[in-house]
User: Which sequence fits this backbone?
């Protein structure tokens, strides 16, 4: 019983949704309610539908290509900038190393070794300061307190 009801509902649903194409001549009555189009109007609707589909596809293709090309351009610009920065960094490093070598050679060529003089001067100043502090502390102990 259920199968019969289900089959009946399915057949009526399909029948109500089906479309018929019935050729009509001028003066004939239409066998259904709706809109009747002549051949040129139907052709125009069909061609507009096809044109709009093609326009949509071409716009989509254009936008995808545009976005892809923009990404490729940005990538290439970034890669070029990185390459230029690396080259500049290499050249600057070479120049800095050359300047360090030049200054080291100039320092070595100056010939005067100030290390022992700095040691002797520092020792002399240390001895003088120590003796001065010692003298002042003895003077402070030997002096009478002020009252």
Assistant:
């Amino acid at each position: 019983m259920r199968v019969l009801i289900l089959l009946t509902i399915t057949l009526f649903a399909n029948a109500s949704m089906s479309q018929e194409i019935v050729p009509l001549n001028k003066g004939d009555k239409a066998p259904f309610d709706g809109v009747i189009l002549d051949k040129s109007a139907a052709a125009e609707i069909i061609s507009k539908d096809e044109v709009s589909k093609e326009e949509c596809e071409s716009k989509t293709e254009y936008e995808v290509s545009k976005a892809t090309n923009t990404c490729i351009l940005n990538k290439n610009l970034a890669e070029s900038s990185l390459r230029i920065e690396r080259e500049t960094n290499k050249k600057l490093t070479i120049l800095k190393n050359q300047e360090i070598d030049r200054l080291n050679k100039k320092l070595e060529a100056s010939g005067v070794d100030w290390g022992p003089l700095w040691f002797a001067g520092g020792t002399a100043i240390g001895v003088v300061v120590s003796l001065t502090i010692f003298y002042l502390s003895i003077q402070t102990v030997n002096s009478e307190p002020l009252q």
Remarks:
- The chain has a mean pLDDT of 82.
